[in-house]
Amino acid sequence: MIEAAPFPVRPDSVRPADLLGPYDGIVLDADTDRPIAGATVAAAWAFESGIGFHAPAGAHEFVTETGADGRYVVPKLADLPGGASMRVRRFTLIVYHRGHIAWRSDRLFPGREARRDFSQRGSRVRLERWQSALRHAEHVVFLGGGARVRTVAAWELQAAALELEGQQVPAAAAGAGEASAPAAATTAVPLDIAKLLSDDEIRGVTGYVGKFEDGKLADLPTTEFYDSRHFKAAGKAESYDVGLRVWRLGTAAAEVQFRKLMSTLPEAKTTDEVGDASFRARSGGIAALVYLVRERGVVVSMTCGGSQCTEPGQLVKLAKLVESRLPELPPETSRAEPAAKPEETP
Amino acid sequence: MKLTRVAAVAALGLVAHASVARAYDPATTHAGLTERAALASQLHRVLARALSRPLGLFEPVALSLDDLPRPQAQSLEARLAALDPSAGASVGPDGVAPALAWVIAGSVIASTPAERGQDYFYDPARGSGLSNSGGVASLGNTLGLLLDAGGGFRALFTGTQFNMTGRPSTEWLRSPENDVGLDAFHAGLEAAIVADRPQHRATALARALLALGGVLTILEDAGEPAHVRNDFRQTYLTPRGPSPFDRGSPFERYVSETYGRMGVPVVVTPVRRPTVTAFITAADGQGLADRTQRRFFSDGSLPDDAVVDRGTTAVEVMQDARGSLPYAYPRLPRLELKVMGKKYYARTKDKRRLLAYVRVPGRVRFFLDEGVYADTARTLLPEIAGYGAGLIDHLFRAEIRIDTTGEGALVSAVGAAGNIRKGEIRVFAEDASGLRRALTTVQPGSAGVRITVPAGTKKLGAVLRGEDDAGDFVAVGEAPVK
After folding, report:
1. Helix (H) and strand (E) counts for chain A?
2. C-alpha A293: how far from its chain's center?
3. How far apart are the first and last CA of chain B?
4. Helices (H), strands (E): how many in chain B?
5. Which B-chain residues 241-260 have CB contacts (< 8 A) with chain A?
6. B163: closest CA among B137, B186, B134?
7. Closest chain A residue by Cα to residue B4
8. Contact of B449 with B410, CB cutoff 8 Å
9. Cross-chain CB nearest to A168 (options B45, B98, B269)
């Protein structure tokens, strides 16, 4: 048995779709109407069996990415399960692209109303830009999806956990069974670590006499949780550069980030020189000292080229200097403030 | 886990043995209710603080099937492989899923294999589970269905020994056979602290979360009218289409299609009850099954059609209808019978549509329609999720607090309901490699007991399997050693 599809075959048709597919469409930015390339598209068919009562009896998932033209194609479900009471119960399409609100063929975010604009063929999937007033916790739960979808959305987990953490009333204080307080909106005021370390302070520690061109490390964008500084030695090789990254994530997520860095950075060795826990890592001529400050929920990564930091102790001095300045970071009060104008986050 | 392979195997297996059992649709309604309950509860905080899982509900937790006995691993693998990935409760090929996904997965797989569904009924008026005793009318219905379907129930519905009877769900909740029941939850939570290696502890935690989902499913079914009104035949075996195989509860179908997983109410207020069982049934009548049974009809527990002739009064029709009711509540309010062929609704005092009825030549027919289903779902779903959230908080009511200071630590049990009557706190020391060894045992108390922490200890874990005024509980706590 194949259930009747709750959506039409085409946007301009009233004829019900074939639940088995094939499906195709285009993913667009809702603001610009331009195609979005590289969006993750996950299609899933759910099977059920049973007479009277019905139970999940399997699923088939197909995951792809949109091409440069924003288009996706999901082939027709080829292998139908057999059995007298077996039925193809549902088809769900999930589209995910970082910086945009996740899109599901069955429901809308954040209101969770039923979606009415999905069709089997020629569907126009218009992705709304992410807005800072939205909550990652609700977004991750809304998204659903299998392992592939979870992987591309993994970057949201820390923010999601933080949101839930802020929402919880400690049992000891409020007593179990009380309703949770409503969540505070996030305002996405970017983290700014400019005051944590200066050119002169680096020179004071390493004895370097040249100039630095200050900027940000380009691999990760600044967010409300992360910021970086790149002290690029003017006219010199990379081995004279100094890098600083700071994640302010809250106690729980900072632990995770610290562990993640420790498991991914090359040649990581625990040293416990700075903060509550620290380790050193090395890649080529660049040394890194990463440390965790639990009380502040902060992870700091200090990197220094071998030509700049000629002694291991210099890296520790720089790291400790930054640690002493952490109280100067702007407070996280922005998370409790009402939402400012919508702003895209990565 | 080789879930892809198993998915195919599972599908084939289920084709051969069409499933019976479940109440609210597992993949949508149960998943959604469980998800809402978990988010409204303190579970995130417990995972993040007491179990050192910083991402809480979003923390990836790995279940290694190699840690389980083979038959159990095979059964679990097949059931997990059948889950719809779009619901976010599926497990990756590496056995990893977020903590929240494990809870939702547990609520979905709680009803598999098929024969389990018979144990998800509880009739609080009789204190019994699903019962086959239905009188002549039910026998006629049964025979009709047998003929209709062209075979015997057992072969047709399950391939199992389902005889339309079952244990009360309150019994199944605590049954050792239930691998996602209360025993499994307590055992998994305890092992999540006690097991020596990180992998074993993660597997134990995943199993505890699965069992938590299973426990929630039993509770959620106590909020399904047919499940608390001993109504299997009429509700679940009514044909829905031309195919003899197309049968199911119209109410559950309505809820599944209207709300899906994500449409279940977002605002959930956790309910407090004194014991686990009291969430389902209690003498004060405030268990979910108690409240559901006395406030809602199911398709198979409506008044019988009332005979109407020229001299019949509305009062007589009402008396006849009331006399035919299998349960004292809900009461049938005053009926309006003036207009032949017009559909009326009997409503509660707060205007909720309780049932529909229509006068046709010679009788009055009572039935439930989508208007009644809509009001029923609107009332029941938030309540079910609230009971679910409350149950989670109840199960995690106690916690072991570990305050590390210098070379020692202060260990105390907090949050228990009244006095802790049984059990002792077992404390474990974890080294840099994650290996955990028993360190000491201390008597539970909120004042705390100071212990010495051996050199090289990176983390302390503690567990108390005890009993307080609210019944059995497992309290856990972990803390890094500075």
Report:
1. 7, 14
2. 22
3. 36
4. 17, 13
5. 243, 245-249, 257, 260
6. B134
7. A60
8. yes
9. B45
Which of B84, B248, B390 lies closest to A59 in CB terms?
Answer: B84
Pairing type for strands A23-29 and A123-127 reads parallel
Distance CA A106, CA B330 (A): 36
Q: Is B75 left (phi over 0), alpha (psi -120 to 50) or beta?
A: alpha
Question: Strand, helix or coil at A116?
Answer: coil
Cβ–Cβ < 8 Å for B413, B443? no
Inter-chain contact B270–A179, Cβ cutoff 8 Å?
A: yes
Q: How far apart are CA B138 and CA A210, in angstroms?
A: 94
Minimal Cα–Cα distance from B157 to chain A, Å? Answer: 6
CA dist., res. B217 & res. B265, Å (int): 17
Q: Range with the lowest mean pLDDT among A233-242, B9-18, B323-332, B462-471?
A: B9-18
Alpha carbon of B124 to those of B25, B30, B40, B118, B168: distances in Å?
Answer: 22, 21, 27, 16, 9
CA dihedral A156→A158→A160→A162, nearest 10 degrees, is: -150
Rounded Cα gap, residues A329 and A225, in angstroms:
12
CB–CB of B59/B202 below 8 Å? no
Residue B234 pLDDT class (50, 70, 90 cuts): low
CA A266-A297-A165 angle, to 5 degrees, is 120
| pLDDT tens per residue, range B37-82 | 999 999 999 999 899 998 999 999 999 999 999 999 999 999 999 9
Contacts of B20 in chain A (CB under 8 A): 50-53
Q: CA-to-CA distance for A266 and B41, rounded, in angstroms?
A: 40
pTM, full prediction: 0.77
Q: Do A1 and B85 touch (CB under 8 A)?
A: no
Angstrom distances, CA of residue B215 to CA of B36, B393, B400? 15, 13, 23
Q: What is the mean pLDDT of residues A3-31?
A: 93
Dist. CA A159–CA B460, nearest whole Å: 27
Separation CA A280–CA A291 (nearest Å) = 9
By the 10 Å C-beta count (0-12 exposed, 13-18 middle, 19+ buried), B84 is classed as buried
Q: Which residues of B touch A157 (CB under 8 A)?
A: 55, 58, 98
Tens digits of residue pLDDT in B268-314: 899 999 999 999 999 999 999 999 999 999 998 999 998 888 788 88
Residue of B62, B110, B125 whose CA lies nearest to B213: B110
Q: Which of A195, A190, A189 is nearest to A326 (CA)?
A: A195
Pick from A130, A175, A114, A147: nearest CA to A339:
A130
In DSSP terms, which residues pair with B474 in a beta bridge? B465
Provide φ and ψ at A326, rounded to 5°.
-55, -35
Interchain contact B232–A (C-beta under 8 A): yes
CB contact under 8 A, A53 and B248: yes
- The backbone torsions φ and ψ at residue A292, rounded to the nearest 5 degrees and listed phi first, read -120, 130
Is the minimum CB–CB distance between B26 and chain A shorter than 8 Å? yes
Per the structure block, which two tokens stand in for B387? 């009971």
| Whether the predicted interface score ipTM is above 0.90 | no
Instruction: Check the CA dihedral A97-A4-B81-B114 and report its sign.
Output: positive
What is the nearest CA distance from B266 to chain A, expressed in angstroms? 9
Residue B211: strand, helix, or coil? helix
Spell out the residues 6+ positions from residue B370 whose beta carbon is closer than 8 angstroms to its own.
Answer: B254
Query: Cα–Cα distance between A171 and A181 in angstroms, integer?
Result: 13
Q: Are B260 and A107 in contact (CB under 8 A)?
A: yes
Q: Sign of torsion, CA B145 B146 B147 B148?
A: positive
**Chain A residues lying within 8 Å of B88, measured CB to CB:** 141, 143-145, 150
Q: Which amino acid is at A15?
A: R
